[in-house]
Amino acid sequence: MIEKAFLENLFPNHRAILDACRLPPPVHQRRYLVGGEIKTWKGPTRKVMSPVFTRDDAGRLTPVEIGSCPVTGVEEAEAALAFAVTAYNSGGGVWPTMTVAERIACMQQFSRQMLAKRAEVVNLLMWETGKSLADSEKEFDRTLDYIKATMDALKQMDNANSSFVVVEGVIGQIRRTPLGIVLCMGPYNYPLNETFATLIPALIMGNTVILKPPKFGVLLFHPLMEAFQKSFPAGVINFTYGKGEVVIPRLLESGLVNVLTLIGSSKVAGHLKKLPPKANRLRAILGLDAKNAAIVLPDADIDLAVKECLLGSLSFNGQRCTALKILLVHKKIVDTFLARFDEELRKLKVGMPWEKGVQITPLPEPGKPKYLTDCIEDAKEKGARVVNEGGGIFVESLFYPAVVYPVHEGMKLYREEQFGPVVPVMPFEDIQTALDYVISSEHGQQVSIFGSDPETIGKLVDPLVNQVCRVNINCQCQRGPDVFPFTGRKDSAEGTLSVTDALRSFSIRSMIAAKKNDTNEKIIQDIVEHHSSKFIHTGYLF
Question: In 3-state terms, what secondary structure has residue 52?
């Protein structure tokens, strides 16, 4: 039976936590990287609390403090920007004018040094975000794989552009060049992988970067600071901390930032894009809100649909932009589906992130359990109910998943992205009803279809691909593999992220051109033979 006492007892006793739970030594960060120098911060700091609580002998729960981080201000943010501007040097800096091979060599050095910090980064990731140890390890390893895939993709791209073309008597060579200064902000749910999914391509394409680590997941960047410092020229990567609502507007209002990359909310992104004095000069690469739906048709394989919808809605407590945030289930099978879903949900292991096989773990956002409770209460007041035993019970940061049914228009859970372990279920009778839900949504990232009739699925796919950017057939929504395009329509994204698409997003096509005649041919030939230019060449990367 799921009761509060059950959840309370899942938190570790304070006497046992050091030995059994991989609690790291407190990381009281007082250093930050700007201009190639790791500086010591002597100003105010912020405590970094884990979503994990400990129980004392009287049963009282206390959050675990795992360290602290700098609260730098506008002055430090503007200094970081100045260093990035100097390093870029209007496109003439060391980094933007390096050859692709030279930038790849720097990135290889960084990835080697990053690997050496795996255990430390993984442990901080687990403790700071509440992500399971297995998933934290997976996030680290996937990020290293992403870096390698990015380097390989850039080699292929550069090799494809190494030849000259002659069209209508004009010689041309076309390559991709950097955009300038990038302001990079990642999310707390995947603070390493999602941040690096924009940071790495931005860097390797020759841009200089100001990195604002996420509020939750901030300490895991500390072990990587020296790797950044040693691997890249001074000023290429600069950190800024402090309150985002204070420092970020000042950076954008300067007009010196060329690219804004944010994984966050559409509301915040919309506000930030208006701040530069010349908004048309700011390129935005954004991963934003999503309310991905699963459409479960009457002929769906129930066991498969339940398995995929359970994983899709509750992996990492539903704290994924690609999570299934509402399940649209046909009336003919909804009762069977709910019964099977509840049966499988009860098998999920709830506990602390270091426990083997754990799937439901503490939530890092302090106000999240209350928000989820408000959503459930709103739905109950309007005719829905929690259909699984213990659904919605929480103690501090540990929230037991709730399946809410039937959800309909007018409830918070119908439109709002809950971003947590609450699973709204809406019955439908006419397929058009399910289709209309996706069409009328403010979001357009992905959708999942579960069914067995090719004709029905085919007819659904055609309109859906014009509403979302990925239609998953008989599987949950997801980002990977990383070679696939990852983007969204409406309020869900701007720009495309995949290994190759991200390289394009953080660069622009530039070219040299000359009329085809003996003089120009000789000039270009001499430039290539004597390596007079890092842009004009015919080199091949292996």
Answer: strand
